[in-house]
Amino acid sequence: MTNTVSAPAKLAPGTLRVTPVGGLGEIGRNMTVFEFDGKLLIVDCGVLFPEEHQPGVDLILPDFEAIRGRLDDIVGVVLTHGHEDHIGAVPYLLKRKGDIPLIGSQLTLALVEAKLKEHRIKPYTLTVKEGQREQVGPFDLEFVAVNHSIPDALAVGIRTPAGLVLATGDFKMDQLPLDGRLTDLRAFARLGEEGVDMFLVDSTNADVPGFTPLERAIGPVLDQVIGKAPRRVIVASFSSHIHRVQQVIDAAAAHGRRVAFLGRSMVRNMTIAEQLGYLHVPDGVLIDYKKAKDLPDDRIVYMSTGSQGEPMAVLSRMANLDHAIEPGEGDTVILASSLIPGNENAVYRVIDGLTKLGANVVHKANAKVHVSGHAAAGELLYCYNILKPKNVLPVHGEYRHLMANAKLAQDSGVPAANTIIAENGTVIDLKDGVATVVGQLDLGFVYVDGSSVGEITDADLKDRRILGEEGFISVIVVVDAATGRIVTGPEIHARGVAEDDAVFDSVKPKIAQALTEAAQSGVRDPHALQQVVRRAIGRWVNQSLRRRPMIVPMVIEA
């Protein structure tokens, strides 16, 4: 669905305005802005990871344009949990205004603070836990325990005179969680009794029938694979999946193996998790990876990053033999994570590379080594039946996920008119239990490329794709400034084109003729002459070589 851009009217008194800025139609960039009585509350501020058609991009941020002139009105940023797609853009927001308070659980804030330290930002924080209520500006916030693939995740109830909104963050309903911390359905039921006016609910697995399997089902599989492995074991996972790392540590310890962490984010996050008591490591199990190479091959497990095929992450570098640890015959590699949409090709390239080196690669497709962190359709139906929300705004998912979630809401009795399929920038006003779409902001992607933020445009990315796929041709011609007659050239150089430069000899007379005709017509402007050159060689390359390379003509006056 593409909404027409339209500016919303001034917010009426006593009305809550809800604007998803990111996370709709995509897996990542989760960020929603709530406005009441002139004040703003932000829930989550995450990043999206680039796909193959975005070459050179490191991260993609939410478009802060919606709040650019209103940073002083922000009373806080609630962070539901510590995954990058919910906290990764916080440094870029705080670079604009450093004293915006961050609100979240102990682990979430510890992970954010470690990230901010790298950006030399010391944040103002408010640590909260489930069951706690806090008044933040005009927003009365209540925090509810939910389980996810990272500990300490929270849903947030937002009360204003306009009504009660419940935002789940990312969640599932694991009935036997590894840390014993259940999604608090009793709190959900209590909020349902009070009356939920709008429910913002995680859609990532809405099109998956049934229930998400239990995390604890993974432990025995990891134990079995590690127990049978003849040589080294390398496990790749998200650097924040503390429960999965705990299962690997337990399996390694049970089979007399030691564990070495690989990857900067893995080392950082697990150090924080152990210090705060979320990760329990038996004495003598951890070892520095530099010392690990002295151990026998059947006495080590490497816990690494790179489960999504990221080119610079540890596992990809191992597959390319660009790392100190080189997988080989008899090694076992376990990919203990899901595939984020868009990363499939990169992951399968890594699997192929490792298999070619002789490693036995165990992944989700051939063993039960990962379960999702998101509620499937059965769990979502439970939530709808418990809460009986007046209005539903599916969030956190691609378009098909949002649609599947809306269908579940309608199946459970929410009227279709009260189920809002929105996109990033859709402005929704809530008052007296009625939610109305009142506008659509024009929000785009903000690319981080090295040290530049927001300077790379879609046009630049298109140029990069052309350079990568079609090649580059430069044409240099020197013309007489007075007559327009060619003095030197045309000189043609090509890069990324299979043919030798000699192939362009046949087009040089065509370029010369086009320039002569332009000169006879009185054209002297170098920019206009460059376009003449571009058209002449472009037509020829397209017809003769069946290519559409980037063409950079230079016409120099002498």
From TrEMBL:
Enzyme class per UniProt: hydrolase
GO molecular function, one term: hydrolase activity
Domain of life where this protein originates: Bacteria
Positions that bind substrate: H370, V371, S372, G373, H374
Annotated InterPro entries: Metallo-B-lactamas (IPR001279), RibonucZ/Hydroxyglut_hydro (IPR036866), RMMBL (IPR011108), RNase_J (IPR004613), RNase_J_2 (IPR042173), RNase_J_b_CASP (IPR055132), RNase_J_bac (IPR030854), RNase_J_C (IPR041636)
Enzyme Commission no: 3.1.-.-
Signal peptide span: none
Alphabetical list of SUPFAM superfamilies matching this protein: Metallo-hydrolase/oxidoreductase (SSF56281)
Domain Metallo-beta-lactamase: 28-222
Biological role stated in the UniProt entry: An RNase that has 5'-3' exonuclease and possibly endonuclease activity. Involved in maturation of rRNA and in some organisms also mRNA maturation and/or decay.
UniProt similarity note: Belongs to the metallo-beta-lactamase superfamily. RNA-metabolizing metallo-beta-lactamase-like family. Bacterial RNase J subfamily.
Name the UniProt record assigns to this protein: Ribonuclease J
Lineage, uppermost ranks: Bacteria, Bacillati, Actinomycetota, Actinomycetes, Micrococcales
Gene: rnj
